[in-house]
Amino acid sequence: MVLDDAGLDILFRAARTPAAWNESPVTEETLHQLYDLVRLGPTSGNCCPARFVFLRTQDSRERLRPALSDGNVARVMSAPVTVIVAWDPLFFERMDVLNPEPGVRSWFAADVGLAEETAMRNSTLQGAYLIMAARALGLDALPMSGFDAMMVEETFLHAHGWRANFLVSLGYADHAFDTPRAPRLGFDDACVMA
Fold this sequence. Notes:
The two termini are 28 Å apart. The protein is built from 9 helices and 4 strands. It has helices spanning 5-13, 28-38, 58-64, 70-78, 95-98, 104-109, 112-136, 149-157, 187-190; strands spanning 50-55, 81-87, 140-144, 163-171. The protein is of the alpha+beta class. Residues 22-172 form the Nitroreductase domain. Its EC number is 1.1.1.298. GO terms for molecular function: 3-hydroxypropionate dehydrogenase (NADP+) activity.
């Protein structure tokens, strides 16, 4: 089965990074639907290291504000939801549930470097699934890396021991502020056939 043009438009061709949000709220039910899609995306060894903190209140956005770079403040503060895409350094403690192969936990427990690399890479994948799942559910997504990760970790993640990867604001775009898509590299500039 292949997505039709309408599906490809929703996920890729017509999707844009929002410049402004409209007033429509994002419901808790929608966030549950979103995660139920995200969790199905593949990760290496089914390690599923990403953790997500959904900031939905004005208070939580104010707590995030000092960690944001200047260019991200207005769009985050006006977004209905901002997600901290994080990773759990101890993700391997759940491998007995996620992967039935014997000894998988010990691969990561014995090698901190491997565990961190695996968690960072695969939580990034899961954050990308979040963006695509959001689009599939009719949401717009604004991914960001302009923030102070240590401040975010101290403010929101410390109690869990999680590490910050990137932020994604979610909502419904105010299309009056849409701009043309920025250029992308063509196949010959970015790809090699071997």
